[in-house]
Specification:
The protein is an all-alpha fold and 103 residues long. It contains 5 helices and no strands.
């Protein structure tokens, strides 16, 4: 019994000492794609070039991070504003995903 408890304590210690940077990067990529799919893909499409409802082609976008953040936050010509439904970090994650769609 004592040996089993010792293994559990050691395992817990090792897990808590694992590198958080790798875990954060991994979850950021998943969250970015998930958020994009949830909030953007209906109009922009999975590859960014669907163009439904007049959505811009994100695969050819040359907008800066600041310009993208403003558009996502405040909306633009038919696109809804997401500042009330997404945190600043979530918007940044979507921006990172959008940049990966560029050709």
């Amino acid at each position: 019994m004592v040996l089993r408890i010792s293994y559990i304590i050691i395992f817990g210690f090792l897990v808590s000492c694992s590198s958080p940077e790798k875990d954060e990067n991994k979850s950021t990529k998943i969250d970015s794609k998930y958020l994009y799919t949830l909030k953007c893909a209906a109009c922009h499409g999975p590859s960014g070039n669907l163009g439904a409802a007049g959505a811009k082609d994100l695969s050819t976008s040359k907008l800066s991070d600041i310009e993208l953040k403003k558009i996502i936050s405040e909306g633009n010509s038919g696109m809804p504003a997401f500042q009330s439904s997404l945190s600043s970090k979530e918007i940044d994650e979507i921006i990172n995903f959008v940049k990966h769609l560029r050709k």
